[in-house]
Amino acid sequence: FHAQCSQRLQSPRMDLCHVPATREKGWYLALMAPNVKGPNYAWLDPSRLYCHPQGLQDCVADLLQPFQGDAIDMVAGIDAMGFILGAAAAATLRKGFLAIRKAGHLCVQTVAQPYTDYSGREKVMEVRSDAISPGLHILLVDQWVETGGTMRAAIELVERLGGVVAAPLRVPTGVAAICMESSEGGKWIQERYKCSHCVPPRLQPRFDQHQ
To answer: Which sequence ranges form a coiled-coil region, renumbered to this chain (predicted)?
Structure first.
């Protein structure tokens, strides 16, 4: 797997046809591309994974597997890359999709929540106020959970509107992302909500260290 990762990450062009004979969980992580533009960008670009048809299908299937049999009424994706996985998950589940937006993009009544993103910038997130009714079970999806600030803001918005991300004595809906780093914020989310991600345990330390 490590050799495959190195080979794929060094490849200048995408191979959209190759599928390994044995597709273990996380094989598609090798499709992601490393940062070549410096410290102002994320350390890894998952968007190449989305271009690979089998890789995207397997990624979504792995994210949804822990929630098989759970009550999910709607999938919510976080602006912006969470829209891709969230919409794919919603289509797979045949559920509706709710976009949780950065402030200033919705022309309807909204509920807002300030937050600090992974880069330390102060931002505001919004969601339309008419989409979530009390007791609605929401699966929150984003591309990545690094410091956890963005996801916590999304959880706050859903719960303020009465949606259920997790609840005692009930089957919880939860949180899904390609990677959930073992940061303080990432651990806070994983301790309180049912979570799903795609990184095998043996690779988690490398992802936590951005290697």
So the answer is: none
